[in-house]
Amino acid sequence: MDPDLALTLGIVIAAFSVPSILSALSDKRAPRASAVTILIGGGLILLAMQSKPGGYALSQVPDVFVSVAARYLP
């Protein structure tokens, strides 16, 4: 898998799980599914960081998002 794609998917999956965590905590239930999605997102981010030599700088992340969107979206 392309490290840029893995980073983008990991960040998107982790971001989408935050509202689910907040909803579970406000309903006083365990956020089990949200915890699994956070682990998946974190694993993808870790895979991307280890796959790319030199890793990513924080300033590169918006450029990575745009390049992945340009590559995979019609």
Short description:
This protein is mostly helical and 74 residues long.
What is the secondary structure topology, with strand pairs?
Layout: H1 3-26, H2 32-51, H3 61-72
Could you characterize the architecture of this molecule?
It is a single chain. The protein is mainly alpha-helical and 74 residues long. Helices cover 76% and strands 0% of the residues. It contains three helices and no strands. It has helices spanning 3-26, 32-51, 61-72. It is elongated and about 40 Å long. The protein starts with a helix and ends with a helix.
Low-pLDDT residue spans: none
Structural class: mainly alpha
Task: Please report the total strand number as a whole number.
Answer: 0
Rg calc = 14 Å
State the shape. elongated
Mean pLDDT: 94
Distance between the termini: 20 Å
Strand content is: under 5%
Could you state the order of secondary-structure elements as H and E? HHH
Describe the main β-sheet briefly: none
Number of helices: 3
Question: Which percent bin holds the helix content?
Answer: over 70%
